[in-house]
Amino acid sequence: MTGRVGDIILVLRRAAEITQEELAEKLGITQAALSRYENDLREPDDEMVGRLADALGVTPGFLRHEFRMQGAIAADAHMRRQKTTKPSDWKRVEARLNVLRMHSSYLLERVPMRPQQHVIQVDPDDQSPADAARMLRAVWRMPIGPVKSLTRWIEAAGILVVEEDFGTHRIDGMSQWAGEHAVVILNANLPVDRKRLTMAHELGHLVLHTTYIDADVEEQANQFAAEFLMPEHVIEPELVNLTLGKLSDLKMEWGVSMQAIFERAYRLGKVSSEDRQRFYRQMNSRGWKTREPGSDLLAAETPELARSIGRTLDGSGLTDGEIRQLIGVGPHAATVFRDKPRTLRAV
Predict the structure, then answer these.
(1) 187 closest CA partner among 13, 344, 12
(2) What is the pTM of this model?
(3) How far is residue 102's CA from residue 329's CA, in Å, rounded to a whole number?
(4) Whole-angstrom distance, CA of residue 120 vs CA of residue 207
(5) Average pLDDT by consecutive 10-residue portion of the chain (347 residues)?
(6) DSSP string, 235-285
(7) Phi, psi for residue 9 in degrees, rounded to 5
(8) What is the rounded distance in angstroms from the CA atom of residue 222 to the CA atom of residue 204?
(9) In 3D, which of 118, 114, 160, 125 has the Cα closest to residue 139?
């Protein structure tokens, strides 16, 4: 889909948490005039494009660019969130994901990236999510057993992983394609075990749901993540005598939560419904349902691709202004390719 100026203005405004009234006042125009720009009922002239770009922290060229995305710019993000998430929260985070998609697409059209791996596309009608996970592990030639440094594997396939403070604990992450590359945005406040599961879940969306959407997409992504991180033929023999102590040891080995391991055992028929109820009573009585022990002992998962691209640009002999033109950001705007990630505050 080709991105229109109105879509881009709307997404940038939402991501910056600016109301239509506030932006109109900053531009010195009426709210009705801005609304016409956002709804593509009126084309801004060059002078107005320059003022909009300055106000929104981008370059005029970025604002006029015809983005060609898989999925609409202003919507259609894959999302891992709780059912009680406020619409204002997920719309804000989704807007931020779309801004990252646009900037990464804009940059990578000008500075092509040649990833070591590629993300396969699988139709869930033809292959189960578990089969898709096994296929991807085979294509990536991953070692048998636990996945070490999941972020590195994902970024080696050209997927940009970005961590930001979402200002809410009810959203774990989102993903979407940006041209030939994809972007995953993660809540920076996630413990490592939950962060890994979220990355694998979003990877499942990118593999399974580029064109295929139905009511089961979240469960399919969960099934993909479980097989990708905990391959059945390897972990199944270990899913016996699942005491809390045993689960804690398995957590250290597999890098996922005790709850994810127990759910894996339940889905594979290794424990009963009564065992599952007993396990969650134990977790609740200890206060571990929301924050398990041992997560801080797991190896950190730290995204590096965006910073690496920025360092490459820094070493290319280009000026800061020239680099910002390539990315499409204004002279004082923060960007994951140049600066520390920004905080998405709660409103």
Answers:
(1) 344
(2) 0.90
(3) 11
(4) 6
(5) 75 92 96 94 94 96 80 54 77 88 90 90 93 98 96 96 92 87 93 97 92 81 97 97 97 98 98 97 94 95 94 92 95 81 44
(6) HGGG-SS--HHHHHHHHHHHSS-HHHHHHHHHHTTSS-HHHHHHHHHHHHH
(7) -60, -45
(8) 8
(9) 118
Query: Do the beta carbons of residue 147 and residue 255 sit within 8 Å?
Result: yes
Task: Please state, in angstroms and rounded to a whole number, the distance separating the CA atoms of residues 208 and 223.
Answer: 11
Instruction: Return the amino acid letter for 78.
Output: H
Tokens in use for 78?
A: 């894959």
d(CA 67, CA 70): 10
Cα–Cα–Cα angle for 132, 214, 289, rounded to 5 degrees? 75
User: Which residue, 114, 303, 119, is CA-closest to 228?
Assistant: 119
> Left if phi > 0, otherwise alpha if psi is -120 to 50, otherwise beta: which for 179?
left
Q: Are 197 and 260 in contact (CB under 8 A)?
A: yes
* Edge-to-edge strand ranges of the sheet holding 78-81: 78-81, 171-178, 181-187, 160-164
> Using a CB cutoff of 8 Å and minimum separation of 24, what contacts does 38-42 make?
38/6, 38/9, 38/10, 38/13, 39/6, 40/4, 40/5, 40/6, 40/7
